[in-house]
Amino acid sequence: MVRAILDGRKTQTRRIVKTTPSTDTTEILHDEGTDWREWFSHSGIVLPKSWTIKCPYGQVGDQLWVKENFHLGAYVREPHAQGAAIAYAEGKQTCFRHMTDAEMERCRLKPDPRPWAESKTIPCLLMPRWASRLTLKITSIRVERLQDISEADAMAEGANPTPNPKFPKLAAGQHVRGYKHLWDSINAEKGPGEHGYSWEGNPWVWVITFNPI
Question: Between the chain's N and C termini, which has fewer beta carbons within 10 Å?
Fold first, then answer.
């Protein structure tokens, strides 16, 4: 997915909506943010105009930053440069991060002085904000069922086309099928209920559209 963003093929991401439509208004947050009336209308629930809820991943205009696997090189102190080099696992792109001694002391990651090919890869979950090279600006947010994704949106998710084994020459639906496999590889074993958050379970999802900046 990092490669898809770098290539300009990924401009959408979907995330699980942890709250489900309900007539119990205690589940609805009275706050400014995304209007959920359309979402609740799918279940026949009329939502008062005063009730709205915020998307936990941000609002239109907010910026998101991307975590990815990376390497952190040795910390150097030179007259012209003080800091550490970073190499990103995808594409092996490198950059130099200027850091003071105090900033380096606050960094819990241990620099690795070995060459990139020999150094240890730091998993994406441990990437701090300062090490990220990708920043995304949210342009729209909506809520829908997972299986409502269109072929165009599946392409915007960066999904690779997966041909139908029965009709391999049929182009229609190939990206949706690819996204289904991608989604289940990440979410199939998560969530409550028999199907959890799998494609078959067809959960509600946040659809977040963004532009890299």
Answer: C
Q: Which residues pair with 209 in a beta bridge?
A: 12, 140
Q: Where are the domains of the chain?
A: 2-18+56-64+134-212, 67-131
Six token digits for residue 193: 């209920």
Q: Give the pairing type, strands 94-98 and 135-145.
A: unpaired
Whether the pTM exceeds 0.85: the reply is no
- Cα dihedral 191, 197, 200, 204, rounded to 10, equals 120
Residue 68 carries which DSSP code?
A: -
Q: What is the CATH code of the structural domain delimited by 2-18+56-64+134-212?
A: 3.10.400.10
For residue range 135-185, what is the model confidence (pLDDT) as tens digits? 999 999 888 889 999 999 999 999 998 877 766 666 677 899 999 999 999
